[in-house]
Amino acid sequence: MPRKSEARRSQTAGSGSSSDHVVNVEMPDGSSDGIGFCIFKVPQILAKIDQKAYQPNTVPIGPYHHRKRQFRKIQEHKRRFFTDLLNRTNQGRNNLKHFAEALQPMEKKVRKCYSEVSEVLAFKGDELIEMMVLDGCFIIELFCKYSRKLAGDANPGDDPLLTEPWVLPFLMRDLAKLENQIPWFILERLFGLTLGSWNESHPSLPDLALSFFNRVLQRPKKVLKKYSDWDGDGKHLLNFLRLTYDPDSPETEQRQKKFLRVIQPASKLHQAGIKFKPTHCDSFMDVKFSNGVLEIPVLKFDDFMSSLFLNFIAFEQCHRGSSKHVTTYATFMACLLNTPADAGLLCDRNIIERYFGTDEKIAHFFSNIGKDVVFDIHKNYLCQVFEGVNTYNEQDWRVHWASFKNTYFNTRWSLISAVAAFILLALATIQSFFAVYAYYRPPSSSNSNPNH
User: Fold this and answer.
1) DSSP letter at 157?
2) What is the pLDDT of residues 406-416, one digit of tens each?
3) Distance between CA atoms of 12 and 330, rounded to whole angstroms?
4) Mean predicted lDDT score pLDDT of the chain
5) 15 CA to centre of own chain
6) Fewest CB within a 10 Å sphere: which of 49, 148, 191, 434?
């Protein structure tokens, strides 16, 4: 009997429709082309997994949560960070108005980035641009303060946002939430107006961003260096992080094939003889399959990574032009992790490093994020893996042998039972043989007594 989540993914893939997940809002000019949108309010069908995962807890960035009363205090810190940034770059003579004038020509472009048009229209032009300046400079100065702290150039006591142990993790999580973004081109422009014109030897914006988040992501230095001079269109900070995880395998479109479908859970694949091997790659999505071995990069599962997953997927589901790499990976993991036993198996193989929760929580998490997303089995970067695993699972003779071994030789007692049954069968066969042999070849009669 197929699992409910598997059936739903198959139906979604077959329909090819994403109308339930892609935000399609009428633009003021009457057009309904939402391709330009890149910052979204998360649709309810996705938000029901965990509403808090998409909304800020400590600092609001952009218009969606700007006017909430609980964030009044942090607005004071934004102005302080703005002043600190100007003083450190010897631009103390400039003020907020100077930067607002530099960003004013971008107002129309900024508005087109947000899907919730009515919420953005609630802000007048000057108010919206001032928000962009303060939020953007806050992000840049936060990155700089953290970078100097890492280098030992700053006294941790200088700033309360960096000294309270609980604050920094929440700030990192808030800055990687879909509803809490400002356009990447605003960050680039402000970076050029401040640090870019002040010191050419200063780390780049991508370098500062990756170093900041690396406190929790802990990626190799070669990965950070790879993107230090990145100059692509990041859309916003969340999407920039997502792009740095793009796997080596591109998205490919495949025709209908017999074995191109979702795969069995990890425990069933294990019983069929497929081996699970942890690998260390630049991206956690670089999954490979060859000769019965499924190579899966090690995944550190913690609060930050689970939040990042949800927001990556929400962006991919909402943005029409985005690749669907994280969605594909989440569907792949949802197939593998159908039960707590499946999660335990991958943890035992050191593929999942569990930093919170139980096997049941991990299985529940991936099952939830995999069931209500638009996923096309015929167009994704793991097509060859899905097809390869299913082909191996159903055609290779070693799979049937492995299934036989798991059934009859999985434990010591099953082995003893199988051996005893074999011995009994052998003895019964021997007994039957001699009975038949005696019937057809009866022993000759003994010679009569000569005295008779």
Assistant:
1) G
2) 555 566 676 67
3) 15
4) 84
5) 24
6) 434
